[in-house]
Design brief:
mainly alpha, two-stranded antiparallel ribbon, globular
Length: 272
């Protein structure tokens, strides 16, 4: 029987084990180095990050390089997507000042969207946002922007409004101020990153287990007989989740961008 072995440890016996557990759990999450440049290791996740950036630039370039009175279907779709981020997220959430942050929000939305959709892209099947470093980096960037904007536009009153909220009864201000301080400067970037990371990891693991298990059973029908039918059920469930993950990829890109706009809005207009 042709065996499928994932991260096999020294104790794994290919003659009897179809799937072997790894010797170290980290083996399931580490991305092997593909090549090195001057001592700098380049892995698959890095290449896919670069590919996602190239795809985003390519989409915008080919959609808007030649403005037309009657745009193509592709141009119309991209105009609708860009208009949605500009009108419904940037301006819709932040207000008229939102147009200044529109390029950043559009870039984040498209990069996350493309990176998420790599999960269901044939021959890739790997969402780059399932590596914590990427959502964390984007969350830190959003954090730096809204904190910088808060102090730049409002001075120290930005911090004062957080730790001593005047809209709260005076007896509760110390407690609410402490909660708001921790929420603004610690919880926001953490939850922003973990939300995106956890959703994409969960979907990626489910697809891998269901489709992988289904394929193992179906491909060994000659050896295990009728029991191979179990694989058909796993495979069908996996395919259903496959299409569901497309919706998750779009939704998570939208949520990350929306929350980024909300956080920036609280810095631009802290009185709201």
């Amino acid at each position: 029987m042709e065996q499928l072995i994932w991260a096999a440890s020294a104790e794994c016996d290919p003659a009897t084990d179809i799937i072997c557990k790894p010797e170290f759990v980290n083996e399931l999450f580490e991305t092997p180095v593909i090549f090195s440049i001057g001592g700098f290791d380049v892995n698959r996740a890095m290449l896919l990050m670069l590919l996602a950036a190239v795809v985003v630039v390519g989409l915008l370039f080919f959609a808007f390089r030649k403005p037309r009175v009657v745009p193509t279907r592709f141009g119309t779709a991209m105009e609708g997507l860009v208009g949605f981020v500009r009108d419904e997220i940037a301006v819709g959430i932040i207000g008229h000042d939102g147009i200044k942050y529109f390029p950043y929000l559009l870039s984040v939305f498209l990069f996350i969207l493309v990176g998420n959709l790599f999960e269901v892209t044939p021959f890739i099947n790997f969402p780059i946002t399932s590596r914590m470093a990427i959502p964390a980096s984007l969350a830190v960037l959003t954090y730096v922007i809204f904190v910088f904007v808060g102090f730049a536009k409002n001075g120290m009153s930005y911090l004062g409004g957080i730790i001593w909220p005047k809209s709260v009864p005076i007896g509760l201000r110390p407690l609410v101020g402490l909660i708001e301080f921790v929420s603004t400067f610690l919880i926001r970037p953490l939850t922003l990153a973990v939300r995106l990371f956890a959703n994409l990891v969960a979907g990626h693991v489910m697809l891998t287990l269901l489709l992988g298990s289904g394929w193992i059973f179906l491909s060994h029908v000659a050896d295990i007989g009728p029991r191979a039918a179990i694989g058909l059920g796993w495979f069908l469930i996996g395919m259903a989740i496959f299409f569901f993950e497309i919706a998750v990829a779009v939704l998570q890109a939208y949520i990350f961008t929306l929350l980024s706009a909300v956080y920036i809005q609280t810095s631009v207009h802290p009185e709201h």
